[in-house]
Amino acid sequence: MARYLGKETTRVDGLAKVTGKAKYTAEFQIPNVAYGFIALSTVAKGRITAIDTRAAEQAGGVIRVFTHLNAGKLGPAPAAGAAPAWSWPLQSDRVFFNGQPIALVVAESYEQARYAARLVKATYETEPHNTDFSAVLARAQPDPATAQGAPRGNPVAAMQAAAVKIEAEYRIPIHHHNPIEPHAAIAFWQGDQLTIFDKTQEVFGVQKHLAESLGVPAENIRVVSPFVGGAFGASLKPNYYPSLTAMAARELKRPVKVVYTRTQMFTGHGYRPYTIQKIALGADRSGKLSSMIHEAFHNTSSFEAFSDSTTGFTRQVYACPHLHAPLKVAATDLATPTWMRAPGAVSGMFALECAMDELSYALKIDPMELRLVNYAETDPESGKPFSSKALRECYRLGAEKFGWKNRKAEPRSMRDGRLLVGWGMASSVWGAFQQPASARVTFRADGTAGVTSATSDIGPGTYTVMTMIAAEFLGLRLDQVHFELGDTRQPKAPAQGGSWTTSSVGSAVRGAALTIVAKLLDLANRDAASPLKDANAAEVEMLDGLLRRKSDPSRAVVIADVMRRTGTHEITETYDSTPSPERAKYASLAHGAQFVEVKVDPDLGTVKVTRVIEVTACGKILNPLASHSQEIGGVVWGIGMALEEATEIDHRYGRIMNANLQHYHVPVNADIHAIETIFVEEDDTIVNPLGVKGMGELGMVGIPAAIANAIFHATGKRVRDLPITPEKLM
């Protein structure tokens, strides 16, 4: 019987966060720190012909103004004859996007640096730029990663032969992550050793990036990131400011701190790319899909290829013999996009699940029934069985809780007074990933344990769940376990992204704890009279200071006695966890179903999402309290994506117009009504020893589609470009 796993557990770091004891990157106090402020380009493409820093240099408190003319070298020398590219800041006069850093002003105070940054004057020779993705669509090239997937069957011929066809185009604007904590770094050198505090989702990724950019061995660089105030993918790739901060600290021989402003965040860490999708679905009269052609196109930058694999999951969702799901990418004169919560999946499933809804109306079949007709019992892509798949149960439970059977099929047929009522649904999918990870556990004779792994906690509750796992397998109370993360001096862990942290790092913590159980059994059995003489490690467990037989708890030894008798003060184990070979025989995915009610004002076109029921199947739920919170957060973000979020660009200047939280709209409390999240637990030991699957991304995947489908049901108007704002419904 589990003591902690599966039980609602409040955050072990909660108190530190609400009392201000938890230190975020910019809050570390370093003596003699200087403050950097970044000046950004005001043109989208071209070169800097002159940069006048005299007024800035003469301003009060200014220590130095770094530009491409005097900055320390960053990055390896470009290959001979290679096209100029932008990888490291302040390395050339070239401008590749509006909002690219052109100077770093370092001063004694933040205010002095900010003021002086406004005095830096640049003159440019501009070149024609293009930031409008529609205008460069013809230049889109196949994304190499997805281009390898050949079409399944003969989708074109099957489409032509299909009894019922629908074709549609869907558009998603650029989105920005906008976490509350702005990106920041503090760097200081001690001789040739660099320590840097950075807001990151992967300390080892930043370490490798800085080794490359500064020409310093990785082992000379320590990256520290204990708390992250939201990231959602914005800190997966190393951003440009850590190398800039470290370079300035090295040149000035004193600590330097750089913090983005909200506006700088819009060109400083990537975004969800502008995405256009063309979908064709062919089916017979019963609704069975015969052909799916899902073509996606999104932008990247002019200097770096990026793909979010928009159509990646399309191949695994429905049983369909003929399918083609290519992705093409085209360059625009903007910064490079990056991964953003549920990357690719939420975009691809928006188009696919809206198209399925359109097909259901063409066939006059209930939208949920259509999904059941095309339910994939095995992975349509590989033919492998699923390690577990409770999606059918998600549909059943969600429909029952929502009252789906009372839905009138006809659009505009349901009302609440003068408001139009719409009911929509969708499915969601995400991978059940596991990455190699390491954790170190130290168990002490006094019955306390220290646990470390260089993972991150961007908010989902990593501190808590790792403490729970260690306490569970070491038989301790939560307050006897201390977990630390976010430091390159700790055992290696993957980036916190892809919803794989618990499966990867959690499996390593479990492995280390169980190794300690086995070692204690060996120590106990040095005593000829040990009551555990004939037991193996799998047959014993630690609990409340005892090592005991699972089948007969009366046969036990006191752990403290065993350790004292054998002269053992503590036992330390580092465990490397890797995905099991067994996994390769199966397809592993997490699934969910969303049911949404909207109320639309027919005169104003305003939409309220009044009710959401989201049912998720993602293996075993270790901490229901945190898990429901994750899923609710996903629903809220899905509402923002469907109705509010868009990064607006003035293409004349290639400049983002709403680079702030006043004009970049995200949901507020008044936008959020009833949200219920339900889990259908799966017993899946193939996926990893803990039986957990990712959920952080999954929670938002089907929501924008379900809302768009509900709005069509309410109004009879199909809006295929997000966000669905009142003027599109008028």
Q: TL;DR?
A:
The protein is α+β, with helices and mostly antiparallel strands. It has a 7-stranded mixed sheet with strand order 3-5-1-12-9-10-11, with helices on both faces. Strands 7, 8, 13, 14, 15 and 16 form a 6-stranded mixed sheet that branches. Strands 17-18-26-27-30 form a 5-stranded mixed sheet, with helices on both faces.
Walk me through what this model shows:
The chain is an alpha+beta fold and 730 residues long. The chain folds into 3 domains: 25-128 and 178-268, Aldehyde oxidase/xanthine dehydrogenase, molybdopterin binding domain (Aldehyde Oxidoreductase, domain 4), CATH 3.30.365; 275-433 and 584-729, Aldehyde oxidase/xanthine dehydrogenase, molybdopterin binding domain (Aldehyde Oxidoreductase, domain 4, 2-Layer Sandwich); 435-578, Aldehyde Oxidoreductase, domain 4, CATH 3.30.365. It has 19 helices and 30 strands. A 7-stranded mixed β-sheet has the order 3-5-1-12-9-10-11, with helices on both faces. Strand 13 and strand 14 form a beta hairpin. Helix 10 packs parallel to helix 18 (703-715). The protein is globular. The model has no long low-confidence stretch (mean pLDDT 97).
